[in-house]
Design goal:
Elements (H helix, E strand, L loop, with lengths): L4 H21 L23 H16 L7 H17 L9 H21 L11 H32 L9 H22 L4 H18 L4 H36 L9
Amino acid sequence: MMVDRDLLRQVTVAAAVSGGFIVGVSGDYGDAAAGPSLVVPANYAFGIWAPIYAGLFSHAVYQALPARRRDPVLRRTGWATACAVGLSGFWVWAQGAPGLELSLIAATAAAAVTAYTRAAPARPGEAVSVRDRWLVRVPLGLFSGWITVAMVAGSGEALIASGISAPWPGAEAWSAAALVAAGGAAATLAWLRPVSLAYAAAVTWGLAGVAVRLLPQYPVPGAAALLAGVAVAAAGVAGARRRRAARAGAGHASGTGKAAPTV
């Protein structure tokens, strides 16, 4: 008996979202303000998990519908989504083993970005349905955007837990460099692959949370987080405008003269 790979994918995504949520919320995350890391956002910023999981559960239900079994977008994103969401809940449980935690962080971030980029339209200027926008692209954008920031925060905490101390020129300079690098990578992705503004919004939210926590006590990494957040926001808006222009051009070329709204 042959296994229906599409059905297996649907079940796996639904199980990964449910399992990732249960494992994640049952962990002990501590107080960000009490930790030594200079790349962790303020406690309030982690409230973004509420809309992230609301979107992911909506996505899990949507992709599990029989009518969506052969959906090409869900085929492209499904396995990467399952991997990213399923692994993300285990970070906190691996805090006692920094090597394992760093491996989980790297695998989660790679899978999350893969799922997000694969949610892009197959052809430039292709119209996006309202359902795909809100039940695929926005949830994956929010999740992958926050994971981009969480990757830096989690990696910093794992390195500190492993006993590694920051070499010259010190923790503030290295933290600032990490935040700038993350912001630059996120801004580049938001510009080159403007799948959803939700990605840039989540990254900006996380970097703003870092800036709020650090300023004015640690002005160098705090300012770096602030500037990186501004850069990501600007790149996200610019990318969205470029995508709208491409859709408008495609609409005029096809004779419709209409472009779908962007989120």
